[in-house]
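Form 7-S
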Amino acid sequence: METKHFISIKAYPAIDLKKAAEYFGLPVPEARERSLTIEGEKLSEIFKYDTRQKRVHVFSFGCLVFEDMEIDETDKFLEIMQPITGEPDYRMLLRYRESHDSTITEDGSIGLWPESGAPAFPPGIELSHTIAAVLAKSAALSKEEEDLNMLLNEAYRHINRSGEGIFNAGTRMYAKTMAHIVRFEKESAAGFGIFDRPASTGRKLLLRDAYDKLANYYELDERYDLLEKKAEQLRDIVRSGSLERFRRQENRLLAFETFLLMLFPLSRILGTVFARSGVKDFINIIFTNLLQKLNIIS
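Output:
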């Protein structure tokens, strides 16, 4: 039995596929595809040796999927990508990744994963890109899951501080939270299209079936639904915090206005009192005695 090994990594915030296609001399992929595959002679030309059945799948949302490649080959490809992507984010690269094996039996039948109890797919069907698409989305989701969890924890810390009477969640915290929510929705829905099958997958029933089975194996839909719920929790926290800040600002403004209104009659009263000579003389005597005791005047 033969095994095909896939490694998916989240290495960049995003990748410009048009630039990548031009850089590697490949056709620009369809807009809905959101990926390109480097294989065969083109990959051998890049590495300067025969790469046989190895492939690299490049996704617009910053993920790379390496098929049957060694560690030194993945490192070399990241170096080759630098003119169009810059340095990879090594923290993301090490943290958000997926490793997956599919199996090929002696008669050529393909199993999506070794322990799969589902019927194997017939020989000749090309599943590599379908598998790569699911792995790339899973790695991208892993990053969003951790980012949103961190933001939620931070938001709850601010809520606890508020309960202790030291609420000080400034504009920066709310701007940061809302910016991440907007970016999450934009990247997930429009960027890596978590609910969309790749264009090439949607054209064949077997590929669609393979995609759906593997997406279910990695729980893509459930994970994305959970992220949306967490994003909604963050929105609620931001709204309540904004209302709290507005209420406090409004109370401070009301108190300041009240203070200003009190100054007008107070100034009239003080003016009337100090206009009376008796009071004025009394105050002068007090201050004169005080200054004499302090030896300021003789």
